[in-house]
Design brief:
This protein is mainly α. It has one domain. Helices cover 63% and strands 0% of the residues. It contains 5 helices and no strands. Helix 2 runs antiparallel to helix 5 and helix 4 packs antiparallel against helix 5. The protein is elongated and about 75 Å long.
Length: 108
């Protein structure tokens, strides 16, 4: 029992758990292609932001479908709904301002 070095064990465990930083260019590409549903935030391990974006997207789709069913909507499709505009602004904010992944590492 006295020969075991706990310092080496904890250093090895720390090195294994340190994630590789996300690529900023992949983050931007995913944001431009799938920004409305939060795929870029999921890639960068920003799970809360990804869940919020996907939830807002799903609510917008359900809202648009419900208004189309009762035929009261002034919007012809989801792309003209206010939710799409909010998601687009959020996506541009992420591309312009977010530089850290979910673990606090700067994206490379």
């Amino acid at each position: 029992m006295g020969d075991f070095d706990f310092g080496t064990l904890s250093a090895a465990a720390t090195n294994r758990r340190t994630p590789v930083p996300a690529s900023w260019w992949v983050y931007v590409l995913l944001a431009l292609l799938f920004g409305g549903i939060g795929v870029h935030n999921l890639y960068a391990r920003r799970r809360r932001a990804a869940a919020a974006q996907f939830g807002l997207f799903a609510a917008g789709v359900l809202w648009t479908v419900a208004l189309d069913i009762i035929d009261v909507t002034p919007f012809g499709s989801f792309s003209r709904s206010p939710v799409a505009g909010w998601l687009t602004l959020w996506m541009f904010y992420d591309v312009c301002c977010v530089r850290e992944d979910g673990h606090g590492n700067w994206m490379r």
